[in-house]
Specification:
The longest helix is centred in the middle third of the chain and has 6 residues, at 85-90. By secondary structure, the chain is mainly beta. It has helices at 67-70, 85-90, 135-139, and strands spanning 5-7, 13-14, 21-22, 24-26, 36-40, 60-62, 93-104, 109-116, 122-126, 129-133, 145-153. Strands 5, 6, 7, 8, 9, 10 and 11 form a seven-stranded antiparallel β-sheet that branches. A two-stranded antiparallel ribbon has the order 1-4.
Length: 155
């Protein structure tokens, strides 16, 4: 996600000053981690064909250092970072609070969800039916998971 991408060929960057296409590099960064993190898993391509690949996810998420969180520690342009213990301690941790699932295809499908209540009890919500469930059940929805909801945990 935060890996540097080289823009070349038809993807070259157009300089706003000289208006010429130039090879360049870019990277995405996270400046500030949100309280609620929603991950949308791209399950359908531009033709509407569903990708039913299994996606591995956990009920706990520890984010890795991102470029923006380490920019102050960049080692003089030599291409590496010094990661301090403070950097690692400042990284947010999240817990899974919901999973929206899609079963079926793009032309016929069904949505249902797993939701964690404030008392830590999980529920499966499927149309008119709501039943108790577990975080383990939600995480096992690796083939049908469509949206993942994580809440930041205060340490």
């Amino acid at each position: 996600f935060t890996s540097e991408e080289h823009l070349q060929g038809t993807d070259r960057f157009v300089c706003p000053r000289c208006k010429k296409a130039r090879e360049a590099s870019r990277r995405l960064t996270v400046q500030r981690w949100p309280t609620l993190l929603v991950a949308h898993l791209k399950r359908f391509n531009h033709r509407g064909i569903k990708n039913s690949s299994s996606v591995s996810f956990s009920d706990n998420l520890c984010v890795q250092p991102t470029w923006s969180s380490l920019d102050n520690n960049y080692n003089g342009g030599r291409g590496f970072f010094e990661i301090t213990q403070d950097d690692m301690d400042d990284l947010p941790r999240y817990k899974l609070t919901g999973v929206v699932c899609h079963s079926g295809s793009s032309s016929f499908g069904h949505y249902y969800s797993y939701v964690c209540a404030a008392d830590e009890q999980w529920y499966l919500c499927d149309d008119q039916t709501v039943r108790e469930a577990t975080a383990r059940e939600a995480v096992r929805e690796a083939v049908n998971a469509y949206l993942l909801f994580y809440a930041k945990v205060d340490l």
